[in-house]
Design brief:
The chain is mainly beta and 839 residues long. The protein has 6 domains: 2-210, Jelly Rolls (Sandwich); 213-309, Sandwich (Immunoglobulin-like), CATH 2.60.40; 311-407, Immunoglobulins (Immunoglobulin-like), CATH 2.60.40.10; 416-505, Immunoglobulin-like (Sandwich); 518-696, Jelly Rolls (Sandwich); 703-838, Trefoil (Acidic Fibroblast Growth Factor, subunit A). 0% of the residues lie in helices and 55% in strands. It contains 1 helix and 69 strands. The strands form 15 sheets. Strands 1, 3, 4, 7, 12, 13, 14 and 16 form an 8-stranded antiparallel beta sheet that branches. Strands 28, 30, 32, 34, 35, 37, 39 and 41 form an 8-stranded mixed beta sheet that branches. 40% of the residues are buried. Residues 1-7 have low confidence and may be disordered.
Length: 839
């Protein structure tokens, strides 16, 4: 059938120019194209079902499959020709349409002219108003010619080359053509199709045929933001003349530090995209025209919007300020407005020297405006020039300006570093002021602290400006006590005070030591020491690095002694030249710097300790470590019993606390007295002592009862005369059963011998175990019958057995007369302590 159709020429008129036939296919969006539209054997087949979706998602139009011919035409005359056929076995509804162009559709309406052909109406052709133009065309090919003259605005229609219709168009000047098949409210699932072939188009001379295109627009026309912020624009693509291509989007004119992104980055046909413009803190303020461009092949369209970047400025005056340590100073901070910036600006500062602080009044403001920044320094602020950074912040926007802060001060020195004066005389120091970092204030000298009683100080001159010196004269009286005093010299300028210290050593104007006492420096002390005595008080000044290591350096006031000794004194005061300066009671074998010694030492702040040098030249030993807490005034005691030395301390001289007890092999002839060291060779430590006593210790000669401190009962041999009898305890009465003597052995130990039996107190079976019983036995050689008495702080004794190392005890502190004594591990319990009751 098709082969019999010859190609036809245009109808009517002259000067026609053939036009290329191009079109876009529009079909239900939710099905593949080849199920609704295909081209076979030069025939276009258009198909649609009544329950198909529209040709674009979201559209409310009826289903259709159509060819939209391109380009649009806007002037002259154009003619369309094709061969059409509708199958007669289907309820087909086919259409040809002259449509107003996209740009004028809103003004003139969409459809200018429509032709319908129906197979269920005998294959008839109708115009848009329902007028029948041709009939009996079902299952038949028929020729359609449509002529549209934009000069006369007249439309003519030919069916099989017969003119069947003439009408006027709607007056628009932009049109395009459509051909295809449409659903028009038929029952669901009906199939409608048409066949189209031999499509041709001609244009008369002077016809303007417009190609497909698009228009780009953007809203809003202007957006404002601050650096670091982001703003959106809506970009709209409007197609013209049947355009359905892909439009790629771009933007130019962005300021420095700004970036842009589109979402989506391109639009197909018509649609919108969001342009997001983002700035950084470095984006400069200003108004920037942005050109948004859409591109599709050789087609492009642009729109212009404005980007307004608002900001603020910050500055400070003056650019530099000078302040003395401890004072404050002010700067004025100014903020300015650019492009209408209206945010709240918070102020902060950085770069302040240590010990300085800054505050703003007000702490935040809007531009334009100003605030006062107050910088306050303290005594610890460093003397230096600092660059301060003042920062204004508003959301993500921050700007800074710098100023300089010059901090000056003065320093104070004293020469010489120490002076020595005899009580009743004067001495002088030179106080020197140095200017730091441009300091030029007036420095006034204040009241000197640390002066001993009876002393005063004066300055000449009393103040200096910038830098200079003054002579400080210290005047003492005859009543000023000997000792080392730390003077504190203050100097003040504009509320800032600096101090310097210097030792003042006052030596006594008289006061000889008691008869039998001698004073001397031991070792290389650095500064000569001294000792004096007045009304029961010893004042001793000593330098030296320490009483410690293998050689001592200190001042020593002493007596020569022999055998057992008890040395007691109260340390009333200590100048405290160092935290480990020492004031001590001491028993010393010789005056050599490396001599054997035992001492109880008190420091100004670090407590009390027992130290010994066990052999000549040996390193000193701190026997039990430092007991923290005790400070002057404090009683100290050192006791020698044979070669056993015991150190104790007391707050009141009545209740004593033992520090330690230990053995030191020392010659019988020795020295005993008071020792003072400064723990430095540069100054003297001056200590005062009272309640000083050096007395001979017990020689354990005579007859004694041994009274247990826990039970109050005394040692008892029960009247037995035989070896092996138990030694118990009894109430103290006049009985030889309770009387004992001490027999000295060659090694410094004693036999505790019963006056009743002549036998010794012995550990049964020479046991070395705790709880072994005590019996009486004849003196032997195993050492279980030899005991060392160690003096306790309260005057009692603890007896250590030579063989076992354990001590004589009343088991559990029993108060029973029949309890047998035993030996126990020494624990300081009162049941292990015995008083000697002389008979």
């Amino acid at each position: 059938m098709l082969s019999s159709l010859a190609a036809s020429a245009q109808i009517g008129g002259a000067g026609w120019t053939p036009q290329p036939v191009t079109f876009n296919v529009q079909r239900p969006y939710n099905v593949p194209e080849d199920t609704r539209y295909w081209f076979t054997n030069n025939i276009y087949h258009c198909l649609v079902y009544s329950n198909d979706a529209p040709f674009s998602q979201g559209s409310t139009t009826l289903p259709r499959t159509e060819q939209r011919f391109t380009p649009d035409y806007t002037s002259g005359e154009i003619q369309y020709q094709s061969m059409e056929m509708c199958p007669g076995n289907e309820n087909s509804y086919c259409i040809f349409q002259i449509h107003t162009g996209d740009a004028q559709e809103a003004q003139f309406g969409s459809t200018t002219f429509m032709l319908f052909w129906f197979t269920n109406h005998g294959g008839s052709v109708h115009d848009y108003s329902g007028t029948t133009l041709a009939t009996n065309l079902a299952d038949k090919w028929f020729q359609v010619n449509v002529d549209h003259n934009l000069v006369t605005h007249q439309i003519k229609v030919w069916i099989n080359q017969s003119l069947v219709w003439t009408q006027q168009d709607n007056g628009a000047t932009d049109f395009y053509l459509k051909d295809g098949v449409y659903e028009q409210n038929h029952s669901p699932t009906l199939q409608m199709d048409t066949y189209i072939t031999n499509i041709q188009m001609w244009a008369s001379s002077g016809t303007n045929v417009a190609g497909p295109g698009f228009q780009l627009s953007a809203t809003p026309g202007s957006q404002a933001l601050t650096p670091g912020g982001s703003v959106p624009y809506t970009v709209t693509v409007t197609p013209t003349n049947g355009f359905s291509g892909n439009v790629s989007l771009g933007v130019s004119g962005l300021p420095s530090g700004a970036s842009a992104s589109f979402s989506p980055t391109s639009v197909t046909g018509s649609g919108t995209s969001t342009l997001m413009v983002s700035t950084t803190s470095a984006t400069p303020a200003g108004t920037y025209p942005l050109t948004i461009t859409g591109t599709s092949g050789s087609l492009s369209s642009s729109a212009t919007v404005n980007l307004v970047v608002m900001d603020f400025t910050i500055s400070a005056t003056p650019s530099s300020q000078t302040v003395t340590v401890g004072d404050s100073t002010n700067y004025t901070v100014n903020v300015g407005n650019i492009n209408g910036f209206g945010g709240s600006i918070s102020l902060t500062s950085s770069g302040l020297p240590s010990g300085a602080g800054a505050s703003f009044n007000p702490s935040s403001l809007t531009a334009p405006g100003s605030a006062t920044m107050t910088v306050t320094t303290s005594g610890s602020t460093a003397v230096a020039n600092s660059t301060l950074t003042i920062t204004g912040s508003s959301d993500s926007v921050a700007h800074s300006t710098n100023v300089t802060l010059q901090v000056n001060d003065f320093s104070l020195g004293i020469t010489p570093s120490s002076q020595t004066v005899t009580a009743g005389n004067n001495t002088t120091y030179t106080a020197s002021v140095s200017a730091l970092n441009g300091f030029n204030g007036t420095v006034t000298f204040g009241n000197v602290g640390g002066l001993p009683s009876g002393a005063s100080a004066s300055f000449a001159p009393t103040s200096v400006t910038g830098a200079g010196s003054s002579t400080m004269t210290v005047t003492t009286s005859t009543s000023t006590p000997a000792g080392t005093n730390t003077l504190t010299i203050p100097a003040t300028s504009a509320g800032q005070t600096h101090n310097v210290t210097a030792p003042l050593i006052v030596t006594a104007s008289g006061g000889a030591l008691p008869a039998g006492w001698t004073d001397t420096d031991i070792g290389a002390v650095g500064i000569a020491g001294s000792a004096s005595y007045n009304n029961g008080t010893f004042t001793i000044s000593g330098a030296g690095s320490d009483i410690w290591t293998a050689a001592d350096q200190f001042n020593y006031a002493y007596e020569s002694v022999s055998s057992d000794q008890i040395v007691i004194a109260r340390v009333v005061s200590e100048t405290g030249t160092q935290s480990f300066a020492k004031a001590a009671v001491m028993i010393r074998e010789t005056l050599a710097t490396n001599s054997v010694e035992a001492s109880t030492l008190l420091t100004p702040t670090n407590g009390v300790a027992m130290e010994i040098r066990p052999t000549t030249g040996a390193a000193s030993i701190n026997v039990a470590g430092w007991v923290k807490g005790p400070v002057p005034p404090q009683w100290v005691k050192i006791v020698r019993s044979g070669n056993t030395f015991t150190a104790s301390y007391s707050a009141d001289g009545n209740t004593w606390t033992q520090i330690a007890s230990t053995n030191v092999t020392m010659a019988t002839s020795a020295t005993a007295g008071l020792a003072v060291t400064a723990h430095t060779t540069n100054v003297l430590n001056t200590a005062t002592f009272d309640n000083v006593s050096i007395t001979a210790g017990s020689s354990f000669t005579g007859v004694f009862q041994l009274q247990n401190e826990a039970s109050g009962l005394v040692l008892n041999n029960q009247g037995s005369l035989t070896n092996g009898s138990a030694i118990t305890q009894w109430t103290s009465v006049n009985s030889s059963n309770l009387d004992w003597t001490f027999i000295t052995t060659s090694n410094g130990y004693y036999q505790i011998n019963s006056l009743k039996s002549g036998r010794d107190a012995v550990v049964q079976g020479a046991s070395t175990l705790p709880a072994a019983k005590i019996i009486q036995w004849s003196f032997g050689s195993s050492g279980d019958d030899q005991w060392k008495p160690v003096l306790n702080a309260d005057g009692s004794y603890t007896f250590y057995n030579l063989h076992s190392g354990l001590v004589l005890a009343d088991p559990g502190g029993s108060t029973s007369n029949t309890t047998q004594m035993d030996q126990e591990t020494a624990d300081g319990g009162s049941n292990q302590e015995w008083k000697l009751l002389s008979q």
